[in-house]
Write a structure and sequence with these properties.
3 domains, 4-stranded antiparallel β-sheet, alpha+beta, Rossmann fold, Jelly Rolls, 25 helices, 726 residues, 6-stranded mixed β-sheet
Length: 726
């Protein structure tokens, strides 16, 4: 961002404060006028007061200088206060504008943007903007005023020297013209790197449990050291170019001073200029040089330094709002139903569609579930129903009307959602529930808590409803956080209740209890549940099965099982795996092992012996179950949870798949001494049933007939491309 653009943006923020700005301009003129008068007074003092022996004039001039000095100092103090007052108002306006714009941006923007980068725009970037919009802009106005006021006085003293000064002063702008654009680009690059550092620090704070458990301190420090090296390089370049701009300008000021001094001294020596005029002009030129020096050495380099932060803030404010109210949008009346998606097409990028011709209808009071493999588009459908995005083709209809006919606020007033990652604000239990309906009475909040079956839990807390939940609700258990989220949703009394994997991260007993609560609260509402766990969907009035961004099946649980298509295969994949209510133990049915290709040929007795050798494991979110390149010695079946499969080194990973309940990986570890070909990491608290290579080899020794079956499976496996999970 160039200097002219920076100044233009800075001035635009002053426009709402134009009246106070004009008053400040008048006030700033007073001290600059005093400086010009003080310089001119020296001509009167020397030529007429001292050399002309006019004592009366001398005393009058000195009295005038003293009086105007007091006035100038008062103006300086008043100007400082007024400038600070306007600056605070401007900065709050910028903060408000940024924050309000952020609330209008789509969910997709936040998915792509690192949170540390956004925080940096509110901290270090805004600190730079504070200087450019207030002190540096005022300093530049002061400097320009000084030049404009002193220039006529210079011509009044001697027009010839004034011309010399006018033609010499542009030398001060040499540095800005030559190096200004490069200095601004370097400053912007520095701000970008500072934002990356902020994101890294924020990420590290949240990742401390993983860092400590896996001994990643050394890796974290090494990565941070590399970033610090890059930050240092960009800092050196930005500061050096800023200094070059200032020093080149200072050199131009010095050259101008030498020229004026030389010409003035020669004119006085030849008798073309009085001594008083020379003294006055040199004093005035010193003032002009000071203003020019400040402008070129401090103000302009300072504005260039601030341009990076200002540009980053402008980038945020320029982000388009993807979902907004249409000009003719009207408030939505109470929703009766149905809720419908009609030939909806959508993709986060035009070349990669996520939903294709999606058709579904949710009748009034109906409970539906959206199920399907990972990446099938379930959560995207939910986001369309929440109107986080608008369709690129097709329509979302409520009561037969396109959702875009109504204002966002009036629609969201009748919608509530409970997500897998429950977000609680730092504050009390009462405040967090009350956010479901701003202004709700204490009685309404307690009633919502009772409906969510969390009132007794709250009453048992140290301070009851006034208990602080901590940052992100960290002082509460996962089940308690989820029930508070349900209470918040119930308080809203929504016509549409949307549940996105709301219980998938909980232990079985807590999940069952919360599902029972949700079923009771669903009466009279349209409820849409997204889940990968089909046991949570079986009681729904209707189940929509998605695959590849399309609805491929629809019906009740029993109807879909009878059809024997995708839903049935998903159900069978998740069947035969048991987890205890407390989530601490689990087992796999011998018959379920028959669905695993390398074990499909085993006799029942062999599968039964093998099933007893599986070990139950639990891991929190973010845990690396296996790491690419390491030796494999265990086979995993996901009992509950969700994992991602990624290829590549840290910082350059590529996600290959997301696996959920009933999926398995690592089977090649049982068959051969091969390194892991991918990294598998938990996305939520997950439980596994695992089989060690040694246990499998022991089975082969006890059941020799199994060897032939396994060898045949290995030969078949070798004929296929190497899988991502081997």
């Amino acid at each position: 961002m160039g200097l002219v653009r920076t100044l233009g943006l800075a001035l635009s923020y002053w426009r709402p404060h134009l009246r106070l700005g004009l008053i400040l301009l008048v006030i700033l003129t007073i001290p600059q006028g005093f400086k010009a008068f003080f310089s001119y007074s020296q001509r009167l003092i020397v030529d007429r007061g001292l050399l002309g022996h006019d004592a009366a004039l001398l005393w009058k001039v000195l009295a005038a200088v003293s009086g105007t000095y007091i006035l100038a100092m008062a103006a300086v103090m008043l100007g400082d206060y007024l400038g600070t007052y306007i600056g605070a108002a401007i900065l709050n306006g910028v903060r408000r504008q940024m924050y309000e714009h952020m609330q209008r941006l789509s969910v997709g923007y936040y998915a792509e943007m690192r949170s540390g980068d956004l925080v940096a725009r509110f901290t270090s970037d805004l600190a730079d903007v504070q200087k450019s919009l207030t002190s540096r802009l005022v300093d530049s106005v002061v400097a320009v005023l000084g030049l404009l006021i002193n220039l006529p006085v210079a011509f009044l003293i001697d027009w010839r020297l004034a011309l010399v000064m006018v033609f010499g002063t542009p030398l001060a702008g040499l540095g800005t013209r030559v190096f200004g654009r490069r200095a601004a680009a370097a400053r912007y690059a520095l701000k970008q790197e500072e934002a990356r550092i902020a994101s890294t620090v924020q990420e590290t704070v949240r990742a401390q449990p993983v860092v400590k458990v896996f001994g990643l301190t050394g890796w974290i420090l090494e990565r941070f050291e590399r970033q610090l090296g890059e930050l240092a390089r960009r800092f050196i370049r930005a500061e050096f170019l800023a200094d070059v701009v200032g020093n080149a300008s200072s050199f131009g000021v010095l050259v101008s001073q030498v020229i004026v001094l030389g010409v003035g001294a020669f004119m006085a020596f030849e008798g073309h200029l009085t001594t008083g005029a020379l003294v006055a002009f040199l004093s005035l030129h010193a003032t002009v040089s000071k203003e020019t020096y400040d402008l070129t050495k401090k103000v302009i380099p300072g504005l260039i330094s601030s341009s990076g932060g200002l540009q980053r803030i402008q980038e945020l404010l320029a982000q388009p709002v993807d979902v907004r109210d249409a000009p003719e949008a009207v408030p939505m009346p109470r929703i009766q139903g149905p809720l419908r998606m009609e030939n909806v097409r959508f993709g986060y990028s035009p070349e990669h569609p996520v939903l294709t011709d999606v058709e579904l209808v949710i009748a009034p009071g109906q409970r539906v579930a959206l199920v399907g493999p990972s990446g099938s588009g379930k959560s995207t459908v939910l986001q369309m129903l929440l109107r986080f995005y608008d369709p690129q083709a097709g329509r979302v209809l409520v009561d037969g009307q396109d959702l875009r006919r109504f204002t966002l606020a009036s629609y969201h007033e009748q919608v509530a959602a409970v997500f897998q990652d429950t977000f609680l604000f730092a504050g009390t239990v009462r405040e967090n529930i009350g956010l479901g309906k701003l202004g709700a009475s204490d009685e309404e909040i307690v009633a919502a808590a009772r409906a969510a079956e969390v009132h007794d839990v709250i009453a048992a807390l140290p301070d009851g409803y006034e208990t602080q939940v901590g940052e992100l609700g960290g002082r509460l258990s996962g089940g308690q956080r989820q029930r508070l989220a349900i209470a918040r949703a119930v308080l809203r009394d929504p016509a549409i209740l949307l549940l996105d994997e709301a219980t998938s991260a909980l232990d079985p007993s807590t999940e069952a209890a919360i599902n029972a609560t949700l079923e009771q609260l669903s009466a009279g509402r349209m409820v849409v549940t997204v889940t990968h766990r089909l046991a949570s969907a079986r009681s729904a009035d209707k189940i929509f099965v998605l695959s590849g961004g399309r609805v491929v099946e629809c019906g009740t649980h029993e109807e879909l099982l009878l059809r024997g298509e995708l839903y049935r295969s998903l159900w069978e994949k998740q069947s035969g795996i048991e987890v205890s209510p407390d989530g601490l133990h689990g087992s796999i049915d011998p018959g379920r092992l028959g669905a695993i290709p390398i074990l499909a040929g085993l006799e029942p007795a062999s599968r039964e012996a093998l099933a007893r050798r599986f070990v139950f494991e639990r891991h929190e979110a973010g845990h690396e179950v296996v790491r690419e390149g390491t030796a494999g010695d265990r086979f995993y079946v996901i009992a509950r949870g969700k994992v991602e499969v990624v290829l590549g080194a840290d910082g350059d990973e590529r996600r290959l798949a997301v696996l959920t309940d009933g999926d398995f990986f690592g089977e090649l570890a049982l068959l051969a001494d091969t390194p892991r070909v991918a990294t598998v990491r938990t996305l939520q608290p997950s439980a596994f049933l695992t089989l060690g290579k040694q246990d499998f080899q022991d089975l082969l020794r006890h059941f020799p007939q199994v060897r032939e079956v396994v060898d045949q499976a290995i030969r078949l496996r070798a004929l296929k491309p190497v899988g991502v999970l081997g």
